[in-house]
Design a protein that fits this description.
Blueprint: H1 2-30, H2 38-52, H3 62-86, H4 102-113, H5 123-126, H6 129-159, H7 169-195, E1 205-215, E2 226-228, E3 233-236, E4 239-240, E5 245-252, H8 257-266, H9 287-311, H10 315-342, H11 345-348, H12 373-386, H13 401-412, H14 423-443, E6 448-449, E7 452-453, H15 456-482, H16 494-509, H17 524-553, H18 570-594, H19 596-603
Antiparallel strand pairs: 1-5, 2-3, 3-4, 6-7
């Protein structure tokens, strides 16, 4: 147990140690300062401005900035949609994969444009290499960059005084992609290739198994069966098994996986190249690649907290926001880890299953890879649902009721426990504005944050930003629960079946993309409804954030006095956590009571 605790602490320590210098680097890039890569990358940046006719000194109003974000995202949505419908006749398709259905194309396009990367398909069998590279990987870069760009527009709103401009969306996007995302992911992709992740353009292969296996007519592997390959018979316990099949070959997917895996992690995208995501041995083969991919999940979101403090010239403010997020992440990780290690009463009953950690992982290993164990699996689950990522190295459907509930709750809070690249922090700043307003009412003072008065305009939009995720999730899952055809997509009934539906819409509404893995979402209703939920939950907060930024930029700075509420001390961190949890608990407790909580109590009866 001590080793497990040390392992959890080591993962968190590595994350923070790497994030601090990255945060300083991002601040320099976004403010046009020189970095150690400037000599190589700045000429590339200038070339893009020249080719695309971008004015580097353009200063957009918040409405112009918003129009650029929506237009850019809309074009990406249409492009990815059409690319999937045409992939059957396009090159880069050695397996001759046909076009997807229109509703799956819409769902996938919505998913990757919104940085959600929810997948109702298996990548290796549903999408061509061209679609994966030109459609999905490109969106992995630009959707992540969009979130960071909107965050910096908000930062400029806090910094600027009596101005209207928030910078140029096109300049922000160019700098983020060229100076931050491309070099970072180039390094990570090379490390992944060195660790054994595949990166090629070969067609999938069928390889001969060293030992054949027998499978029943229901698809179950027959352990201990005697296989006669010459006569084609399978004998189990002395009796011939009728309709049994002898499997002598295995399908091995190929393709440019490492390049997509790198950006899916750092961009908090999560879309796996393989259907089982990072649980696949060719996408995540060993502890080294697992550590690299897992740390990459939260690297940029954590770094942006330190970037924020430096950019607003108040490092204590950035540290305060970081601690609020970090404490919630630590609590979530602890609950998941304890529940998975303790397993369920059914597994512990009568000592039928050895749950000790002596020479084994112990606990609830269902749905987890033996090469990662509970510690690495639980950490990944906490990290991926804290970020708006969604990649997995274990199947969340097999987690204990409370372990699965915490994963849902992290997404339901609005993905603000670090969250996605940029969007997690601007979501948390909306909660911070809400917190200072409530605190101001308690002490009878006009609320202020970073030297700017918080007035009704900011409050209205902050409330919409904070409630966008709960509205999307609850409305979507509520409607789905009443649609009869949804029942056919469930892998389980009862409380766990409801949890599968709730998790699906939580993942879409939280722009996360992870799945319980027991839910067949590839139907017309589910593809369209989850796609609409993803679009709503992504772009309403962007509209609100830019509106707040534009209004703040036009305000004057207020001098700090003895009566000014401190937003950098422990009390503010506590209030911020309280407000985030209060909104999440009040919004989702009834739904959680019908799903994972009901399942938990039924398991101990």
């Amino acid at each position: 147990m001590t080793q497990a605790v040390l392992q959890y602490a080591l993962y968190l320590a590595i994350l923070v140690i790497l994030a601090i210098p990255l945060g300083a680097y991002i601040k320099k890039v976004m403010y046009g300062e020189k970095t150690f890569l400037s000599k190589i990358l700045t000429p590339c940046e200038k070339a893009v401005y020249k080719i695309m006719r971008i004015r580097e000194d353009e200063d957009m109003t918040w409405k112009t900035y918003l129009f650029a974000v929506l237009a850019f995202s809309g074009i990406g949505l249409v492009f990815v949609f059409l690319l999937q419908l045409a992939q059957g006749v396009l090159p880069g398709n050695p397996q001759n994969i046909p076009a997807t259905s229109w509703h799956l194309a819409f769902n996938t396009a919505s998913s990757f444009v919104t940085n959600t990367n929810w997948q109702a398909y298996s990548g290796e069998s549903a999408l061509s290499y061209l679609t994966q590279a030109l459609g999905l990987t490109v969106q992995n870069f630009v959707s992540a960059a969009t979130g960071i760009a909107v965050l910096f527009a908000l930062i400029r709103g806090f910094v600027k005084v009596k101005e209207q401009g928030l910078g140029s969306f096109w300049v922000d996007m160019t700098r983020i992609v060229i100076h931050i995302l491309i070099p970072l992911n180039l390094v990570i992709a090379l490390c992944l290739v060195g660790g054994g992740v595949i990166q090629n353009f070969k067609a999938a292969e069928n390889v001969t198994l060293m030992e054949p296996i027998a499978v029943s007519a229901e698809g179950e592997i027959l352990e201990g069966a005697v296989i006669d390959t010459e006569n084609g018979t399978v004998t189990l316990d002395g009796a011939v098994v009728p309709d049994a099949q002898i499997v002598t070959e295995q399908f091995v997917p190929m393709g440019p996986a490492a390049s997509q895996v790198a950006i899916k992690q750092t961009g908090t995208n999560g879309g796996g190249f393989m259907g089982v995501n990072s649980a696949h041995p060719l996408e995540n083969p060993n502890p080294f690649t697992n550590l690299l991919e897992m740390i990459s999940l939260l690297l940029i979101p954590v770094a942006l907290c330190f970037t924020f403090g430096s950019a607003v010239k108040n490092k204590k403010q950035g540290i305060a926001v970081f601690f609020a997020m970090f404490l919630m992440l630590g609590a979530a990780l602890s609950i998941i880890a304890v529940n998975e290690q303790a397993a369920t009463p059914q597994l512990a009953q009568n000592g039928m299953v050895d749950l000790s950690m002596i020479d084994q992982a112990g606990g609830n290993m269902e749905g987890k890879e033996a090469r990662f164990g509970i510690t690495a699996s639980a950490t990944w689950a906490a990290f991926t649902t804290a970020a708006s990522n969604g990649s997995v190295n274990s199947m969340h459907d097999s987690y204990t009721p409370l372990g699965g509930m915490i994963q849902m709750l992290q997404m339901q809070l609005g993905e603000v426990i670090f969250g996605g690249t940029g969007c997690g922090l601007y979501g948390m700043l909306a909660f911070a504005i809400l917190t200072v307003f409530i605190a101001g009412l308690m002490v009878g003072r006009t609320p202020e944050f970073l030297g700017k008065k918080i007035e009704p305009f900011e409050m209205k939009w902050s409330v919409l930003v904070c409630l966008a995720t709960p509205i999307a999730i609850l409305v979507g899952s509520g409607i789905a629960a009443m649609v009869p055809s949804v029942k056919e997509s469930l892998n389980n009934g009862g409380a766990h079946g409801f949890s599968e539906v709730l998790y699906a819409y939580t993942s879409g509404g939280g722009n996360n993309g992870s799945a319980f893995a027991g839910f067949n979402a590839n139907t017309v209703f589910l593809n369209v409804s989850i796609g609409l939920v993803m679009l709503f939950a992504r772009f309403l907060p962007i509209v609100g954030t830019l509106a707040i930024a534009g209004n703040l930029a036009g305000k004057k700075k207020i001098a700090v006095t003895a009566g000014t509420l401190s937003t950098t001390n422990a009390m503010f961190v506590f209030l911020l956590i309280f407000v985030v949890l209060l909104i999440g608990a009040l919004s989702f407790f009834p739904a959680l009571a019908l799903g994972p909580i009901a399942e938990f109590f039924s398991s101990i009866v």
